Amino acid sequence: MNHDPASEPRVVYEGKYQRMVVRGTWEYSERTHAGGLAAIIIAVTPDDEVLFVEQFRVPLQARTIEMPAGLVGDITAGESIEASAIRELEEETGWTADHADVLMIGPTSSGASSEKIAFVRATGLRRVGEGGGDDSEDITVHHVPRNRAAAWLVEKMGQGFELDAKLWAGLWMIEHHLDGRPR
Q1: Higher-confidence residue: 31 or 157?
Q2: Where's the Nudix hydrolase domain (predicted)?
């Protein structure tokens, strides 16, 4: 197998949002927007409810449960991770935040994509609208008591929803600092 990182990448398809690349024996996707970065927003309301979103995802042909998320800089070039996260939180859930803190950045699927995701903690939440996404999205917002969030997710899985695996990392980050200390 050719794992030579110096081998030249070859774009075999490019669309509006994604491109497919072949480098040696590897095939993977890249985001076409600057940075190739998305943000997942960990948000707990003043009533101690975790915000989740439900939407139909075409690649899975199924409804999914996720934490609010979106592409960084897809609307405004050079937009910070924090500003993108707050914008996406408001668009998808109808909640805004006074502060957003990047907790960590890592790959979403290191064997299939160059995309990275930033886990962002949103604090100082206040409701400013209904949410539901933009005109191209059909998002249902769920407010789940924090102490029931894990059980609720298991119930949703049992009902046939696809669950983004990053949900479990996000729930852990609600309760812990990255060094494992409880919050």
Answers
A1: 157
A2: 34-175
pTM for the whole thing?
Answer: 0.89
Average pLDDT estimate for 169-177: 91
Determine if residue 19 is left, alpha or beta; phi over 0 gives left, psi from -120 to 50 gives alpha, anything else beta. beta
The full set of domain ranges for the chain reads: 1-32, 34-175
Token digits for 102? Answer: 């990047």
Q: Do 87 and 75 meet the contact criterion of CB atoms below 8 Å apart?
A: yes
Q: How many helices (H) and strands (E) does the chain have?
A: 3, 13
**What pLDDT, in 10s, does the model give residues 92-123?**
999 999 999 999 999 989 989 989 999 999 99
Return d(Cα 63, Cα 8) in angstroms, integer: 38
d(CA 58, CA 42): 24
Mean residue pLDDT of the chain comes to: 90
What distances in angstroms separate CA 28 from CA 12, 57, 85, one per listed residue? 10, 20, 26
Q: What is the largest CA-CA distance in the chain?
A: 53
Identify the helix (H) or strand (E) that includes residue 88.
Answer: helix 81-93
